[in-house]
What we know:
Layout: E1 30-34, E2 41-45, E3 58-62, E4 64-66, E5 70-75, E6 81-91, E7 94-100, E8 110-113, E9 118-125, E10 131-137, H1 141-148, E11 174-177, H2 189-197, E12 201-207, E13 230-234, H3 236-247, E14 252-255, H4 257-266, E15 276-280, E16 295-299, H5 306-315, H6 317-329, E17 340-343
Parallel strand pairs: 1-17, 3-12, 3-14, 4-11, 14-16
Antiparallel strand pairs: 1-2, 5-6, 5-8, 6-7, 7-10, 8-9, 9-10, 12-13, 13-15, 16-17
Helix pairs in contact: 5-6
Amino acid sequence: MEQLLKSDFYFDLPQELIAQDPLEDRSSSRLLVLDKKTGAVSHHVFREIIDYLNQGDCLVLNDTKVIPARLLGEREGTGAHVEVLLLKRREGDVWETLVRPGKKCRPGTRLSFGDGLLTAEVLEVVEEGNRLIHFEYEGIFEEVLDRLGEMPLPPYITHKLKDKDRYQTVYAKYEGSAAAPTAGLHFTKELLSRIEEKGVEIAYVTLHVGLGTFRPVKEENVLDHHMHSEFYQITQEAAEKINRARRQGGRIICVGTTSCRTIESAADEEGVVHAGCDNTEIFIYPGYRFKVLDALITNFHLPESTLVMLVSALAGREHVLSAYGQAIQEKYRFFSFGDAMFIV
């Protein structure tokens, strides 16, 4: 495949369908079920997902936890406002960050947050204009961050989040994400218990979601797009659950594109998932042959995004765009706080 055009993945989305607030009850969002072979679509409520899961299937969830990675402060000396987004911890108290306004934050610039509770120095400018920043504080960084930081909601969400926990999954465990694995936001603890009672295995993997997940594809030829790197970890227990389910004929069902990218990155050519940790830049687009994944629970994604390309790799571009067209007609809610889709 020499060329795959970004414009092939465009669809027109009315602004009012972008969900601004999470629903009161997580599992009451809508669910569109798409048959990847035929393109047939049916409409449900999310908690009915249990009817589509069978004994022996393995549900793969990403248990990363979003950190309150958005810091609002000022430049020391001038008092000018500055916004810092934590992207990735490099080592110790040095973080790779996105800084606005970037031009004024050259190496050597000092920053202050929360009346000096947290201070920082810009060390250097790295790729894509990101800044390496060294933080200074008293006590424990995570506690300081919890006091001063805000949830880094995606740029298309303009409402303020009333409850920080609503941008976390109920099983979030390991801190490190700058964005939530949003397909998991639909699950309640009660629904997960019922799924386990039905004989479905649940395997937890960890991928720390970077803000690169929202970075638009700028190249018209999709194959020229460079994917951002993200850290993932798979325990021996999770790898064994996934491999056992595959051996015994169960389906591997990923919750979210992040879980999908994790297990596809950690699998060998035979589809055996290996435990361990690494960074992945895997870019999944039509033509990709899935090694492990059979089905995917996911949200509705942005036009021309790498995520729409991933779901198109699984179900075919025509089927996906047709299903999206029906979702728009039926007024489904889109993006992070929106409704869900099960590609089966």
